[in-house]
Structure formats: structure tokens, C-alpha cells
Amino acid sequence: MSIAFDEQRWRQTKESYGQWxxxxxxxxxxxxxxxxxxxxRPEPSLPGYGFHSFYGPAVTPEEIVDRWxxxxxxxxxxxxxxxxxFPNFGPGVAAAFIGCELRNAESTVWFHPQTPTPIASLHLxxxxxxxxxxTRIRDLMAAAMERWQGLVQVxxxxxxxxxxIAASFLPGEQLLLDLYDSPDEVTRLAWEGHEVWWHYxxxxxxxxxxxxxxxxxxxxxxxxxxxxxxxxxxxxxxSPAMFDAFVKPELAASCRxxxxxxxxxxxxxxxxxxxxxxxxxxLKGVQWVPGDGQPDITQWxxxxxxxxxxxxxxxxxxxQSPLGLRALDVIADQIGSAEGICMIGGASRxxxxxxxxxxxxxxxxSQGHRGRAT
Length: 374
Description:
Blueprint (H helix, E strand, L loop, with lengths): L6 H16 L6 E6 L26 H13 L2 E4 L4 E2 L8 H4 L2 E5 L4 E5 L18 H17 L4 E2 L7 H8 L2 H10 L1 H26 L18 E4 L9 H7 L1 H10 L2 E7 L7 H5 L4 E7 L11 H9 L3 E5 L9 H9 L5 E7 L4 H10 L13
Parallel strand pairs: 1-11, 3-6, 7-8, 8-9, 9-10, 10-11
Antiparallel strand pairs: 1-2, 4-5
Helix pairs in contact: 2-4, 4-7, 5-7, 6-7
């Protein structure tokens, strides 16, 4: 195995993230992965795909994990970075577990209802038996646990937001109409979706725990306690009153069940909901994504000040700004502190010294080459 990480690095990682979640770290989390290294082993013939549903049934979970293992071996983990994989079967894949058809497109995944169903007849519930896509992801997670024995953090698949799952069964326009015509039915679906979401979250964690070091998602913040990047992309079309009525109660309930809950605030259409989100006491942080065609993350100081002043944590990616690594300095200056920030990104080998200098500036250990290849 050629992954440059070890038990000592995991101890340091768990300690740093634990203090960050507790608000006692005294510095930001800086997680930067550097690629371009020799994996020390032959490259598998299996291609690497961003969406793992692209692999057909003939490709075994073990073959996919072997491909991941090679890719992880070409990386080094600086600062608070750690080796992780994310089983990506599309955002809102829980819909495929309970009746939607998963369709692979050229560069994404879509979910379509088998049969259009009016909202009064639509019920969301865990499927009887073991549907194919649930089994596929579960077996992939199990193969990763067997292969790495806790060296690599395996993230939760993107289950989706509960109204997003409902919207996969009801075209978005119909669900909007139902908010007015059948509000009680929408509320019912929101809570049915809640139960579906938690059923599969718990089912997957029966496979992942306790071998997995902790919890993470596609947004690779590490937590030893249950963590998830919650979302409701559908709510960008909702008024604040509708958000409070149909979305916020379920979000607050999920935040109570998760020790460390974040929210994926996606697009300017969701900004009207930020104040309401920040009122949820068990919500730990917000990831702000301005969206295509909007100014980059360093151009939204009022948003970040509002999040920070509410006592919530902030997470962003280096590729969300042309400033890259320097976005941390800008946002820290805007809110008056770097504490509570988690910056995640990648860098080339030519940028490694720049990364290490930034980590040292904020008081972190570089940890760049302290992991041994095992």
C-alpha cells in the first residue's frame, strides 16, 4: 500500500478537527492535497470516473477500490488534509433507492420517476428488499473497509436533501404548485423524506463504522462524530415564509440528530434564507456557493460576516476564487478572524512551498512528509 499516511497522522488529524469543532483550535483548518507523486505501483487499467455509477455491474467493488487506492497513492496530504474517497452516485441518490431510475448522462447523473404520481398518491419510504443502487454503494463501502482497515476515510454518498428527493418524483414545477394547492401533502413528504434519509444514512454507517476513522462527505471536513453537509437545492425557488414552513423544521431536526451539521447554501436564490438558517442552534456551519456567473467567494464579505457573527463555522474551497490559497487571507481579514474557517483545496507540486508557508503562517503543522508510505 502506497498511501502516505499513518496512525500518527490520524491521531493528529482527529485532535485538530476535534478542537476546531469545539472552537478551541485557535487557527483555521487548512486542508490541501498535492498531486503528481509516484504511487509506487502500476496504474490499474480501470479508468477513473468522477461518477462511480458509470462503472457497469461487471466491474467489482474491489476493482473500483483498487483504482481509488492508486489515485490516493499519487497524493500527499498537507496541513489538515487526509486521504478520503467519496462514493459519488449523483446528488440525491436516495431517490434511486426508493423507486426513481438513475440515468447516467455524459458528465452527470439524473433521477427520473418510473411512473409520474400525483402528490396525494406519492409516499416516500425505504424500499423493500435491497435495491440495486443501495447494494452497489454498500458493497463498495464494505470493500473499502476491507482494503484499507481505517487508513482512508470513506465519505457518505450524497443522499440529497429531503425535498430534493421528493422533487425527483415530482417535476420541480409540480412541487411548486403543490406548495400552494396541497401544503399538507408537501409537509407529509418532507417528513417521509426525513425518515428515508436517516434510514439509509444509518444503514451505510453500519458498514462504515467503527472501521472508518470518523465521518465526512463530498465536502471533506473530518469529524469523529456524525457529520453531514445538509442541503435543499429546491428551496432557491421558495420565499422565506415557505422555507420556514416546509424546509426549516426538518433541517432543524436533522441538525439535532447530527453532532456536526453543515449547510450547503447554493446560489443567490438561497441567500434570503440565511438569517433563518443561522437561527438553528444545532447547525454548526455554512458552506456558501455563489453560483455560476456570480462574483467569487471573496466578494461576499457581508455573507461571511453574518455567518461568523452568528457563531457558525465557515467552509470553502480554494477553487471558488481566482485567488486560490490567498482567499483565506482575504476572508479572514473580512470577518476579523481566521478561527472557525475550514479551507479545502488541491495544489500542484510546484505550489507545495506556498502551501507550507500558509500553514505555518496560521500556526498549523505542515505534516507534509510526516506520513510514511505503508
